[in-house]
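Weekly sync, protein design subgroup
Attendees: M.S., D.O., the rotation student, P.L. (late)

Item 1: inverse folding check
M.S. brought a backbone from last month's batch and wanted to see whether the design step gives back something sensible before we order anything. D.O. pointed out we never logged the input encoding, so this time it goes straight into the notes. Structure tokens as presented (343 positions):
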């Protein structure tokens, strides 16, 4: 059983990925400082898989404490580095906090890999590195535009830091996964998106509105040059995304990579508009959503979705779920976690 270090293992995508890793025979340890999560996610993982995951409550910006964990676990075969701050708007308000957290964590992980000879890294990048792309769908070759936020810039910078570092340390290997819009929850509704910070992403806003945590929600703009006037995104189910990590890590561990840094888009390869997402929610839940059309949200790109050909061909990964699966599982999770809060 190969041991994997997951940073940010208590967070949304990290916790779902741990489930997929365990189901594929990996042993997992986690580092998470709980700045946007709690260890409750680990209980959900245990209920689903029967495995207890140990989390080190350590800030990756603390190099000494981070190195201590590598010292203790000399048999780590790969690292999946999720830990980062991710709220786009907050990053505009607190740029230095974002640069410090996301870059210091990344640098310390790379230093530890080099020092302790851990050769394989999967990095959580984001479609936000593309900015306002000129052509759709975006491929991994699409030129990166100016970042729209300090958050997006941390992702561009981390990609460059990895490239430069691995150019020098050629025994290290990395895959950068550029996620499009992750959403949905594990089918069991035992884990899901549960941030400490206020959710701003479309799918949690929809479910929180439907359950009554919000009175209504706003669709940000219906006057874009798209098929129904609302923005278009590529929503990827979190369990499909989770499996992309397992496949990417296996690809590295089996030595199938052609270069020591490779990039893959992780999306379904189709655009869904905001209004289509709302309709999908109404269809699978059978209940109307209280929404209004509002002005455009500053900084939103009009449309973005992935070309996933390279990922499918190289990693043998194909997403299995669609927007309706996203809405159904997100809604089941919302009901479960709200029930738990009330009851
Ligand atoms: P999340 O906030 O749920 O999880 C991130 C976890 O990292 C949290 O549990 C947090 O407590 C932890 N963390 C943050 N900084 C840390 C530090 N310095 N030391 C230790 N732990 C730390 O976010 P998520 O949605 O699971 O995102 C995971 C990764 O994927 C992030 O890198 C994010 O930027 C990236 N990503 C997310 C999305 C998205 O829409 N959710 C899209 C593209 C990329
Ligand atoms: C999706 C669509 C909104 C809320 C962000 C980050 C990106 C990546 C994924 C991390 C947009 C519309 C939303 C609402 C709405 N994260 N919307 N009403 O902005 O595509 O991407 O998350 O890397 O970097 O920027 O995601 O879910 O916020 O928005 O109409 O209340 O839903 O305008 O068109 P976004 P989102």
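Designed sequence read out in the meeting:
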């Amino acid at each position: 059983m190969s041991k994997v270090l997951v940073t940010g293992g208590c967070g949304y995508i990290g916790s779902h990925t741990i489930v997929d890793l365990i189901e594929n025979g990996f042993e997992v340890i986690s580092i998470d400082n709980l700045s946007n999560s709690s260890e409750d996610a680990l209980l959900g993982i245990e209920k689903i898989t029967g495995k207890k995951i140990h989390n080190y409550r350590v800030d990756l910006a603390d190099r000494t404490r981070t190195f201590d964990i590598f010292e203790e676990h000399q048999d780590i075969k790969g690292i999946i580095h999720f830990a980062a701050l991710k709220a786009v708007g907050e990053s505009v308000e607190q740029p230095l906090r974002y640069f410090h957290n996301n870059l210091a964590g990344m640098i310390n992980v790379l230093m530890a890999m080099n020092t302790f000879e851990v050769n394989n890294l999967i990095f959580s990048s984001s479609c936000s590195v593309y900015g306002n792309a000129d052509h759709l769908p975006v491929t991994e070759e699409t030129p990166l535009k100016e970042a729209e936020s300090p958050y997006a810039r941390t992702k561009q910078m981390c990609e460059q830091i990895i490239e430069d570092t691995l150019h020098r340390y050629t025994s290290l290997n990395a895959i950068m996964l550029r996620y499009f819009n992750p959403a949905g929850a594990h089918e069991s509704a035992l884990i899901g998106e549960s941030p400490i910070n206020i959710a701003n992403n479309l799918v949690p806003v929809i479910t929180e509105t439907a359950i009554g945590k919000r009175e209504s929600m706003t669709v940000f703009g219906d006057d874009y040059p798209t098929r129904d006037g609302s923005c278009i995104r590529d929503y990827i189910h979190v369990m499909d995304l989770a499996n992309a990590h397992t496949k990417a890590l296996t690809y590295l561990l089996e030595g199938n990579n052609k270069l020591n840094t490779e990039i893959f888009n992780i999306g379904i390869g189709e655009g869904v508009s905001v209004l289509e997402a709302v309709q999908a929610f109404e269809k699978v839940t059978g209940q109307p959503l209280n929404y209004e059309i509002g002005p455009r949200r500053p900084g939103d790109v009009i449309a973005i979705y992935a070309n996933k050909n390279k990922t499918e061909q190289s990693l043998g990964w194909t997403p299995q779920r669609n927007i309706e699966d996203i809405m159904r599982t997100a809604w089941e999770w919302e009901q479960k976690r709200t029930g738990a809060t009330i009851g």
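Discussion: The domain at 202-233+269-338 is CATH 3.90.25.10 (UDP-galactose 4-epimerase; domain 1). Residues 86, 88, 126, 128, 152, 181, 200-202, 205, 217-220, 231, 233, 274, 297, 300 surround WQD (ligand 2) (CB under 6 Å).
Action: P.L. to compare against the previous round before Friday.
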